[in-house]
Design goal:
single chain, 71 residues, mainly alpha
Length: 71
């Protein structure tokens, strides 16, 4: 389980650099305009990822670790 957590943490730590590399130089209109009325814009997706990283992942990781200690 520890190996999986280490791999997951590595992926999450790389996410900001990957997003920056992919989005640097993209015009503002493309970042803020969704493909269709049912899709999210690139900006909305990035904001969602940031929110999840700051608010959801730490809670989920703590829950997983606490359940493992209880077994």
């Amino acid at each position: 389980m520890e190996n999986v957590l280490e791999k997951t943490a590595d992926i999450l730590q790389r996410s900001p650099k990957v997003l920056q590399a992919m989005l640097t130089g993209v015009c503002e209109e493309l970042l803020q305009t969704p493909e269709n009325e049912h899709a999210w814009s690139v900006w909305q997706v990035a904001a969602h990822l940031l929110y999840m990283e700051q608010n959801s992942w730490p809670q989920r990781i703590n829950l997983i670790l606490s359940e493992k200690k209880g077994k």
